[in-house]
Amino acid sequence: MTLRHTVDAVVLDIEGTTSATGFVVDVLYPYARSRFAALLSERSGDPEVARAVAQVREAIGEPGADAVRVEKALNAWLDEDRKATPLKTLQGVIWSEGFARGDLVSHFYDDVVPELRTWHSSGVRLHVYSSGSVAAQRAWFTNSPEGDLTSLLSGFYDTENAGPKQEAESYRRISGSTGIEPAKLLFLSDRPGELDAARAAGWHAVGIRRPGEPYFEQGVGDHAAAGTFDEITVSRSTS
Ligand SMILES: CSCCC(=O)C(=O)COP(=O)(O)O
Ligand SMILES: [Mg+2]
């Protein structure tokens, strides 16, 4: 079945939607895990690192936590795939450097990039909204197996600049930032709580259900669902 949406922009979740959770967990997480200790000891003076470390200490309720304790908290969050903003900031620092160095190449499901190109060429704007930091998102789309895809994208949103993905207010913030009214925005995600929040903000929302992904069995509640991007036809609204 084809789902049809007439909108000005599509906003993309990454993990579970454009790309495999398994790749993130099996390739990116170990890459970050093995580099947290060095980042915390050698770069604690970098403003971005210092801010994230302060946020970790606050989240665990230990204002005096040393680097070993902070690393332990980060690894525990990694184990449970917790979408904690300071974890995502520090991962983003490590990953963006790993992508730039050529250690990492991102992953996209086969159906994704052709549809992104089709939607973009029909005048539909494409944005990303992921728990991964903006730095990580940029590196992800820059270093894809099909080369640099960032020319397809008009904006990047994460939990730092937009807010939590399961809160409607975050989607209102993105709508305000893009200048696109809610009814002309379509969000694609694998997580029902995120789809609920987007819909509550007046957006169109489609659940992406891919076999093997963590939310596949649970489903996407009462949201329209697609198994692949080519089941979705997106046209640019004329008004
Ligand atoms: C390029 S970001 C890497 C994936 C990641 O760490 C993440 O948390 C993605 O979560 P999403 O909100 O896209 O499901
Ligand atoms: Mg996701």
Automatic annotation (TrEMBL):
Cofactor(s) it depends on: Mg(2+)
GO molecular function, one term: acireductone synthase activity
Its biological purpose: Bifunctional enzyme that catalyzes the enolization of 2,3-diketo-5-methylthiopentyl-1-phosphate (DK-MTP-1-P) into the intermediate 2-hydroxy-3-keto-5-methylthiopentenyl-1-phosphate (HK-MTPenyl-1-P), which is then dephosphorylated to form the acireductone 1,2-dihydroxy-3-keto-5-methylthiopentene (DHK-MTPene).
Keyword Amino-acid biosynthesis: yes
Name by which UniProt lists this protein: Enolase-phosphatase E1
EC number(s) per entry: 3.1.3.77
Organism expressing this protein natively: Streptomyces doebereineriae
Keywords, ordered alphabetically: Amino-acid biosynthesis, Hydrolase, Magnesium, Metal-binding, Methionine biosynthesis
Metal-binding is among the record's keywords: yes
Record-stated family: Belongs to the HAD-like hydrolase superfamily. MasA/MtnC family.
Catalysed conversion reaction: 5-methylsulfanyl-2,3-dioxopentyl phosphate + H2O = 1,2-dihydroxy-5-(methylsulfanyl)pent-1-en-3-one + phosphate
Pathway in which this enzyme or protein is active: Amino-acid biosynthesis; L-methionine biosynthesis via salvage pathway; L-methionine from S-methyl-5-thio-alpha-D-ribose 1-phosphate: step 3/6; Amino-acid biosynthesis; L-methionine biosynthesis via salvage pathway; L-methionine from S-methyl-5-thio-alpha-D-ribose 1-phosphate: step 4/6
Cofactor note: Binds 1 Mg(2+) ion per subunit.
